[in-house]
Amino acid sequence: MTPARRLGFTLLGGVALACLPWLLSEYHTHIAIVSLYYVILAIGWNLLAGYTGQFSLAHHTFAGIGAYASALLVHHTGVPIVAGIAAGVVLASAVGYVLGTLCLRMRAIYLALATWAFAESVRLLIQVEYQFTRGDLGFRTPLLFGT
Questions:
Q1: How many other β-carbons are positioned within 10 Å of the β-carbon of residue 118?
Q2: Interatomic CA distance for residues 100 and 94, integer angstroms
Q3: What 3-state class would DSSP assign to 76?
Q4: DSSP secondary structure string for all residues of 25-64
Q5: Are 75 and 143 within 8 A, CB to CB?
Q6: Distance of alpha carbon 34 from alpha carbon 76, whole angstroms
Q7: What is the DSSP code (8-state) at residue 106?
């Protein structure tokens, strides 16, 4: 398959996915969003564990950092939800880059322990900053696509 044809199929698939929230019911939109979320997590795990053989225990933490960053930004500053999501992606990517730069030279159990310590540190930070993040109770945000 030529690169131009591959790009065309990719763009067509992207447009089809972007139109799904307006074509599906609320329930099916919710299922599609959750499914795509887990697909992104699985792709990240496959890139690290499948191709490099490394074992990280912080994938869920990067998802949490992005989610909390976008939710807190929308709630406390009132920016649009899409801008909050973009900011969460940028922050989680930056934190992942920094942690990856520091830890990916480690091997075997040491990488797993370092990423686990990072994940626990972030969890504890969210837990103790109760006034700002609501700690273990979770955080209520505006709805995306009405679901």
A1: 19
A2: 10
A3: helix
A4: -HHHHHHHHHHHHHHHHHHHHIIIIIHH----S-HHHHHH
A5: no
A6: 25
A7: -
Pairwise CA distance, residues 115 & 100, whole Å: 9
The first and second tokens of residue 14, run together, are: 């992207």
State the DSSP code for 137: G
- What pLDDT score does 95 carry? 92
Regions in the chain scoring below 50 on pLDDT: none
Q: Where in the chain are the domains?
A: 1-41, 54-147
Tokens 């900011």 sit on residue: 87
How far apart are alpha carbons 94 and 101 in whole angstroms?
Answer: 11
- How far apart (Å, rounded) are the C-alpha atoms in residues 79 and 89? 15
CA distance 43 to 97: 16
- Residue whose pair of structure tokens reads 């950092």 in the numeric block: 65
